[in-house]
Amino acid sequence: MERPSWDEYFMDITRQVARRSTCMRRQVGAVMVKDKNILATGYNGTPSGITHCDVAGCLREQLNVPSGERHELCRGLHAEQNAIIQAARHGVNIENAVLYCTDSPCIICTKMLINAGIDKVIYLKGYADTLSMEMLEESGIKACLFEHVISGGC
User: Fold this and answer.
1) What mean pLDDT do residues 5-30 have?
2) Three-class SS of residue 41?
3) Active-site residues: which are they?
4) Is 90 exceeded by the pLDDT of residue 79?
5) Do 97 and 30 meet the contact criterion of CB atoms below 8 Å apart?
6) For the packed helices 107-116 and 130-139, what is the interaxial angle rounded to 10 degrees?
7) Closest Cα to residue 83, out of 132, 40, 118?
8) This model's pTM is above 0.85
9) CB 53: neighbour CB atoms within 10 A?
């Protein structure tokens, strides 16, 4: 059996974290890593103690809101937001960390990641939000598609 690289290892964990999501539209996971140590994880879903969307229903589906638009019309938080919040609640410094995420971050999460001091974002697939990628680039945060990381291109 071939031993996974560190990037493969952390992305495999990110995929498992996403499985906890109760979102009816997409399951997203995020893992914050520094010096080969996991600092925090997050998945998309409602705040603690709030009825999950798979029970309450999806307002975005009911209103036909396209992906990447009108984020305020959702009961849930994004995976990246939950990872940042988890780190804050436990007093964990995520500055200079790498974010592994199943989807590239939206603009709201991107602004949070910039201000949190994240160094790099490695994601499995893109998200319908070009402004977020432009802002990551402008801020100096390297954003890499996972397949490019594995092939040595990022």
Assistant:
1) 96
2) strand
3) 80
4) yes
5) no
6) 20
7) 40
8) yes
9) 22
